[in-house]
Every structure is written in structure tokens, then in C-alpha cells.
Amino acid sequence: MQELKAFNEKRAEIYWWLSSVFARELTEADLEQYQSAEIRSFLSGLGENPSLKPATDKLVDALNRLNDRQDAQLELAADFCDLFLKSDKESALPYASMYVGESGLLNDKPAKEMESILEQHGIAVDKQLNEPADHIAIQLDFLGNLIIRSNELEQERHMEDAFAEQHEFIEQHLLNWLEPFTQKCTKLDEFGFYAAMVELTAAFLALDDHYLIGE
Fold first, then answer.
1. How many domains, the chain?
2. 198/59 Cα distance (integer angstroms)
3. 202 in Cβ contact with 125 (< 8 Å)
4. Helix/strand/coil (H, E, C) string of 140-160?
5. What pLDDT, on a 0 to 100 scale, did the predictor assign at position 168?
6. How far apart are CA 18 and CA 56, in angstroms?
7. How many CB atoms lie within 10 A of CB 183?
8. Among 12, 71, 161, 186, which one is least packed by beta carbons within 10 Å?
């Protein structure tokens, strides 16, 4: 169980990292960290998995090009704004409601479902992230918390139940809309950093989902 719990911690950390990317624009300090040997080694490790390698390669390429991009932080912040904060016609809005069911800003069912899930688990959303609950950053953060909470379990059968819950959440609240979201990001993100991050997120979720069901 200890080895499993250590692996769970790594899974949660990755989801929290991915959540932070979509929660706000990256700062100068963030970009410096992204260029560090530690992060490059981490990305290299992710790329050793064949299913993650295409997205990881794109992300590393974007980071390399950032070194030559004038006013890199400001330009990347502008990319974030253009991609995630404008209208549904101009941007790839990062809400499940835009892609699930009767997609559009008037479709609040995914947000209400996510609010209910957060309340059931007693998990609060960061108040600084003033977004509906179906925002991808909130969903990924919740998933990280769900994983860490499962580490409080001591019996294998309870961990199996926790894995089933995580699998269900990934299937019903993330993988059900990430494909069209990824396609739209790829189409609109000319520089490619955030498109690569979205592609990596989708690939990691698919990989993790297979792990949870024992494939």
C-alpha cells in the first residue's frame, strides 16, 4: 500500500500542476521554473511514456521557443487571455458546459453537477479563482484532492472503490469534453504552448483512466 500511496501522491501533484496552468496566467517566476533542469527532467520522464510523448515534445518545443520570444511572459499572458477569456466564438472556453449536452454559456448543468460533487466531498474552491465549478482548473484540482484523500484508506478493497470513483469522475466530467476542447485550442493557439498543455492534459487523463481500471 505504501508504494501505491506514493504513486498516488505523484498523480495528485501532476493534476495540481495541470490545474495551475489553466487557473491563471504564468508569472515570470513560473516561466523561470519551467526552464529549470528540474522541470525539464520531469517533462523528459513524462515523455518516456509513448502515449504522452507527442504532447510532451510539443510542450518542450514551445518552451524552447519561449527563450527566443520577446517579452515572453507578456506574450504568453496575451495567449492565455485570447484562448481562454474571450467569447465562445473567439476563444476555447475551458468549461465543460461549452462542449457537453446543450453546449453554450446558458447550459449550467455541468457547473451545478460539479458544485454538488464539491459539496458532497467538502472541498472548497480557491476563492481567487472566480469561475464556475465546471472550469477545467477546478475539475483537475478536485481530482488531485480526491486522489490524496484516498491515501487515508488502509484496506485494499477500499482503495479499489476509490479508484472506481476516480475513474467515474474522469470519464463523466473530463474525458467527455476534452477532445473538442483540445481541437479548438489547437486551432486557435498559434504559438502552441497552451495547445500542448491541453493535449498533455487529455493524454495524461486517458492514461490515468486506463491505469485506474487495470488496463
1. 1
2. 10
3. no
4. HHHHHHHHHHHCCCCCHHHHH
5. 97
6. 13
7. 15
8. 71
Residue 35's pLDDT band (cuts 50, 70, 90) = very high
With 0-12 / 13-18 / 19 or more C-beta atoms within 10 angstroms meaning exposed / middle / buried, residue 106 is exposed
Q: What is the pLDDT of residue 147?
A: 96
Nearest of 130, 126, 95 to residue 109 by alpha carbon: 95
* Grid cell locating 2: 505504501
Structure confidence by residue, pLDDT tens digits, 64-118: 999 999 999 999 999 999 999 999 889 999 999 999 876 555 568 899 999 999 9
Q: What is the pLDDT of residue 205?
A: 98
Residues forming beta bridges with residue 95, ordered by sequence position: 135
Domain that holds residue 151: 2-212
